[in-house]
Design brief:
The chain has about 450 residues and is of the alpha/beta class. The protein has ten helices and 23 strands. An eight-stranded parallel β-barrel has the order 3-4-5-6-7-10-12-14. A seven-stranded antiparallel beta sheet has the order 2-15-16-17-23-20-21, covered by helices on one side.
Length: about 450
Amino acid sequence: MEFDFGSVIGKIKPVHGVNNAARQTDYGPLLPAFADLHVPFSRLHDTGGPYGGCHYVDIANVFPDFSAAPDDPASYDFTLTDCYIRPLVEADIKVMYRLGTTIEHEPKKYRIYAPSDPEKWADVAEHIVRHYNDGWADGFRWNILYWEIWNEPDGLNPACEPNGCPNWIGTAEDYYRLYSLTANRIKRLHPEVKVGGYSSCYILGKFDNGRWEAGDASYFTDFLRYISAEETKAPLDFFTWHGYLGQRYLEKIEIESRFVDETLNRYGFTKTERIDAEWNINICDVETDDRRTQYYINYRNEKGASHCAAALFEMQRCPVDAAMFYETQLWKAYGCLFHVPSLQPTKTYFAFQQFGELYALGKWCGCAREGFVYACAATDGKTDMLAFANIGTQEATVKLDFRNLHGNHAALLLCDRDHDYEVVGNGEIFSGITLPPYSFATIRVS
């Protein structure tokens, strides 16, 4: 692999954002180790417990009586959502506030129906923006920039959802109208913020012969036509989709992101930000009927961690402007950055630490791949960093050719089955590196 640290391609992108935050109580401070990651984004979705803990973020929680008056502060209950957001703002983590509701997998659905009065719903949503950005209703001036309208209205996979659609009961046009009304109202009164959606669940639409391919994308393209039409025109500052990945199959990142990029460009949304708002690694590497439990185990070990590290490099390389990993809440099986109850970091935590170090350097010098080994390079003009991930089941050796290094001393850090992203070598510049199975490593030159 060749890397030229004198040639800067662009900036390291904020693809190491997350959903929610790690804390011992949803209304309390961030775990210090989580704060130390300095993640760029926290997307607020499925926040605070099943059904949003009945108190957090969701419009049905913040505005519990839909017959109430939207312009009356007494109609709202912001208390615990305020508690949830405050530590994020204080830690300088950007918030993406999902306006809508938490997923419902159960056989009875409560809050995922298309609003009976979409104009009133849009009014309520805009008052939530006022509370957090304009100080309305004893609120704040927190300048929350990203406002996402609903989540996965297109999502229904009968194999995964035997109880029916878990996010939206209504027609596609019901959602398009809700989006248009809400986005226009928010942007008219708050032109400084960004509005977007719709967190597509199956953006490619087709899985055939072990590969994801572009299939029926009509929900996506009809949405773009709807918000482009003169009578229903609406802004789309950012578009979100969800990309859950499988073992040694990170090509889906490029397939999805390029499909989204090309489709948005085709419909004239060339300046719309491309955001992968939910992703994780689903690895089942043993014979079992309970694949999901094995996913949860591997989310926390070197298998999932090495895939996460490589996925971050791929999102840096591909047309992804930002991304949010799902998930960080301690009580969730997906919340895999910390062990519970010890609250010690998992190996996946260190993948985010590694990419955060690249992000702090700021200047991107390229990505590369050889077989199952992925790499990403960055510099700040004084310190150079080359990050690797081996997602294969075998040891891998890579020869290195460095150019225009800014120092002559190298430190090697390793995370694998036996190491937790710790220094395992110091000295002169490495001419090669051998990576254990399911591992990630960093060479830092200064």
